[in-house]
Amino acid sequence: MLPFLWRATKGYRLTPWRSPYLRWRIETYWGTPADEIRFQEFWRFVWRSRADLIRMLGWVRNCA
User: Fold this and answer.
1) Sign of CA dihedral 37, 42, 48, 54
2) Is 58 within 8 Å of 4 (Cβ atoms)?
3) Closest by Cα among 21, 25, 18, 23 to 8
4) Phi-psi region for residue 11, left (φ > 0), alpha (ψ -120 to 50) or beta?
5) Which of 45, 18, 12 has its CA nearest to residue 34?
6) Alpha-carbon Rg of the chain, whole angstroms?
7) pTM of the predicted model, to two decimals?
């Protein structure tokens, strides 16, 4: 799980809402245009989708 998070936030570890990869994933999953995702929208998404994100990280761990 941590290796995935480490790779997904490369270059943006202190500001994950600026990561093009994570913005693209949120846009795909949530439908918010990537250029509109800021600090507040990012953390709102993480909080509201936390169960799904934890489940996805479990899936990633099993695939690795």
Assistant:
1) positive
2) no
3) 21
4) left
5) 18
6) 12
7) 0.76
Task: Report how far residue 61's alpha carbon sits from residue 38's, in angstroms, rounded to the nearest whole number.
Answer: 28
10-21 pLDDT per residue, tens: 899 999 999 998
| Per-residue pLDDT band at 23 (split at 50, 70, 90) | very high
Would you call 25 helix, strand, or coil by DSSP? helix
What distance in Å separates the CA atoms of residue 33 and residue 24, rounded to the nearest whole number? 8
Give the C-alpha separation, 11 to 21, whole Å: 11
